[in-house]
Amino acid sequence: MTAFNTIDDLDDAQRVLVRLDLNSPVEDGTAQDNRRFDRHAETVGELAEAGHRVVCMAHQGRPGRDSFISLSSHAEVLADHIDRDVGFVEGIYSETALEAIRSLEAGEVLLLENTRMADEELPEEDPEVKAETKFVQTLAGEFDAYINDAYSAAHRKHASLVGFPLVLPAYAGRVMQSEYEANTAIAEREFDGQVTMIIGGTKATDVIGVMNAIGDRIDTFCMGGIAGELFLRADGANVGYDIDDSELFDSQWDENADTIGELLADRGDQIELAVDLAYADEEDDRAEIDVAEIAEKTESFLDIGSDSVAAYEPIIRDSDAVFVKGALGVFEDERFSVGTVGVLEAIADTDCFSVVGGGDTSRAIEMYGMEESDFSHVSIAGGAYIRALTGEPLPAIELLIDAAK
């Protein structure tokens, strides 16, 4: 049973305010299509098809950054995904915006301007404070229900995320529902067999925190990426430090060396380290070297090696559940996609519960011809995924749970 009310619980013919997360790459001032539009289209399309009046709000970028733009182009992309018109208004709770909201007919969809263009949106404050803002108070009077579908922003205490559940009946959209159920599975679901986690990516501090928090729930960690090198360094290998201006390793080593050492000491039998690494040779081709043979790090290692992939694959195939947090190499470059693609293909071929998350890792599925349907869940969340894995509270979700009570 879901912990909160969902759009299945809505009464008929409602005026609904729907919070999405359409934060997207921006090129030449225009939002680029990505997986988030496709996911949120399920919620928006279902609501419109059911005859609700649907008003959507979302954020894009942060003030002062090039990605901080209007949502006018987002409305066009969303319309393509739901195969119906999406109106757009250059306002959030201005009189113009309120008039556009009031003029909606059943089944019509409207997108409001970037929520972060409202001064009251961004400061992280308690929900009770946000609920009293003019932003929330003005808009709330126009709606029968609030629907939060922005799981990937659920760790934020912004007005559009935590203010409305205190003043309107609150529900979860399809993205919120599916992400919550999949990403809390480590903590809440019992598995019959081995549970494996693939650890990679560039933000070692995040994943090391995950390992420390959920070690009791995981049988095997398969290591790659920056974290993988740092663990190799702690294990005595001559890797895991900066050789240029990248500043990817040393600062994270200084922050996490003690925790890494403790994890190796306490959970060394659960941690599988790479036995070889890949780099670009003088001809700019992929080359591999055994970790034991590295006397000094003179090249940037961009992937785990083939022997490491071969060692990880049987672990995956023997697992009842596999969770992925981060890529094992620079998969955007086909030469260094071997690790990431190898483990993803092994997961796809295995009859196990699987969740793929962590930054852009899920993009590898599409890039290399795999199907999302081969995995139990492909997460579009970053920070919220980390919070869920470590058991930290997600304020927007806690409010949905409270609302259901």
Q: Please report which band the strand proportion falls in: under 5%, 5-15%, 15-25%, 25-35%, 35-45% or over 45%.
A: 15-25%
User: What value does the Rg take, in angstroms?
Assistant: 23 Å
Determine the number of helices (DSSP H or I, runs of at least 4 residues): 16
Look at the structure and name the CATH superfamily of the largest domain: Phosphoglycerate kinase, N-terminal domain
CATH class of the largest domain: Alpha Beta
Give a written overview of the molecule.
It is a single chain. The chain is built from 16 helices and 17 strands. The model has no long low-confidence stretch (mean pLDDT 95). A hairpin with a 2-residue loop joins β2 (26-27) and β3. Helix content is 37%, strand content 16%. The protein has helices at 35-49, 72-82, 95-102, 127-131, 134-140, 159-163, 174-183, 185-188, 204-214, 225-234, 250-267, 306-317, 338-348, 363-367, 383-390, 395-404, and strands at 15-19, 26-27, 30-31, 53-57, 86-88, 109-111, 145-148, 170-172, 194-199, 220-223, 271-272, 276-280, 286-290, 303-304, 319-325, 353-357, 377-378. It has two domains: 7-180 and 394-404, Rossmann fold (3-Layer(aba) Sandwich); 184-374, Phosphoglycerate kinase, N-terminal domain (Rossmann fold, 3-Layer(aba) Sandwich), CATH 3.40.50.
